[in-house]
Amino acid sequence: MTTAADAYRTIPELMRLARGSYKRAVDVQLAADGLEDLPTGSGFLLGYLIDDEESAAGKMERLGIKQAEFRKLVDTLVLRGYVARATDPASGAVSLSLTGRGHAASDATAAGVTFVDEELERRLSPAEMAGLRRGLAELGEIKRSLPGPVLRRGLPT
Amino acid sequence: MADRPWYEDVPLPQLMREARDVYRHAVASALAAAGCDDVPRNGAFVLADLDQGASDPAFSSQADVVTSLGLSKQAASQLIDTLVLREYLERRNDPVDRRRMEVRLTGRGQRAAIAIRTAVDAVEARLRQLLTADELHGLRAGLAAYRSIRERPAD
Question: What number of CA atoms fall less than 13 Å from residue A2's CA on the CB side?
């Protein structure tokens, strides 16, 4: 719901206040399913692990994280039973796959995201939804057009 | 029939992630160019909030600044401390009520605030060129809806 105060907020303020909406909804869903120890941001990684076609480098690029962070996150997910690691004895290549717990966490993450998206659809008119999509897309394009190195965004929230 | 825009098929969380740092990126570049590259995270919101565009800015209640940030009291107080330490803010006791604190921009803070304002205005001007008034309204309404969903996810 738009409040009277929102009319006076700048777009950067609105963006700051909007930050974390998906994370909060996903956290609520994970807690309901007894999966509170899923590390921040790794719900997205679990989703990417289902996509077997994408390389580890591709996953890191999409997550916006460094190799060391990626490996540490994977280690934590293995330790907590979300991901299984297997090493090919012939080539030494490591493959990762979701465990049953990992699939449950991936489903909970998707449910949290769906909750927010459906709430947006419920609260906004189709024209407002279209404006939101176009506006976010253009902000992303503006960011890519800015000079200088792009700031690292870290783990998604 | 017109082509379907590319962003129609991108999940909203991804669009949010890719858009969310645009202002931070623009402001960080402007602050670095102004010699103010040690503004802490969220500090730009404080400086922008206190920016009155005046050469001799008035003091504002620290409590009001902290409330508008939407951070925890401890995090907001640490942020103000850092901004004072790095000479972006001047702090004093409220002369009327000595229990309360007031803050205002220093000369360095004003320089940073101008850089922030200029960077934000440039992004917003670009956005106004690219979006219709209805789309801009939709963007604002959508961001406000995200906030209200985040605050009351179970509703």
Answer: 16
Work out how many domains chain A is built from and give that number: 1
Q: Can you give the pTM of this predicted structure?
A: 0.76
B89 to chain A, minimum CA–CA distance in Å?
20
CA distances from A22 to A6, A135, B56, B106, B118 (A): 20, 18, 42, 37, 30
Structural domain includes residue A78: yes
Contact B153 A115 (CB under 8 A): yes
Predicted local distance difference test score (pLDDT) of residue B131? 95
End-to-end Cα distance, chain B: 39
Measure CA B132 to chain center.
Answer: 24
Question: Where do the domains of chain B lie, and which CATH numbers do they carry?
Answer: 21-151 (1.10.10.10)
Give the model confidence (pLDDT) of B85-131 as tens digits: 999 999 999 998 888 999 999 999 999 999 999 999 999 999 999 99
Q: Which residue's structure tokens are 């997550």?
A: A63
**A142: part of which helix (H) or strand (E)?**
helix A126-145
CA distance A63 to chain B (A): 9
What is the rounded CA–CA span in Å between residue B15 and residue B9? 10
Residue A125, both tokens = 């008119």
* Contact yes or no for B152/A26 (Cβ under 8 A): no
In a domain, A46, yes or no: yes
Whether A157 is covered by a domain: the verdict is: no
Q: Which two tokens stand for residue B13?
A: 């969380």
- For residue A63, tell me if it sits in a domain: yes
- Quick: pLDDT tens for A35-44: 999 988 787 7
Residue A59 corresponds to which amino acid?
A: K
Chain B CB contacts of A139 below 8 Å: 18-19, 22, 123, 127
- Residues of the domain holding A97: 5-145
The full DSSP string for B97-132 is: -TTSEEEEE-HHHHHHHHHHHHHHHHHHHHHHHHS-
